[in-house]
């Protein structure tokens, strides 16, 4: 085996292997983000389903704002439906 792979190349293989694993992990993490859509048969623009009164944040700083906005949107929708 020493004739085929010289001992001096082991560090090179190690560094390249670590780089390949790191790049693969990075690409995997990018592919799992919320802006990536893998469903080709379904709706390819799911962000269009979000309404104006939907809070998409993980932490709500001002929950009263979203409640008032939800009520405002419902009232305006009723006014539009009457017309």
Automatic annotation (TrEMBL):
Kindly state which keywords UniProt assigns to this record, in alphabetical order: Membrane, Transmembrane, Transmembrane helix
Q: From what organism does this protein derive?
A: Kwoniella shivajii
Q: What is the lineage of its organism?
A: Eukaryota, Fungi, Dikarya, Basidiomycota, Agaricomycotina
- Pfam families membership: B12D
Q: Which InterPro entries match?
A: B12D
Look up the domain of life of the source. Answer: Eukaryota
Q: Which residues cross the membrane?
A: 12-28
Instruction: Supply the name of the protein.
Output: NADH dehydrogenase (Ubiquinone) 1 alpha subcomplex 4
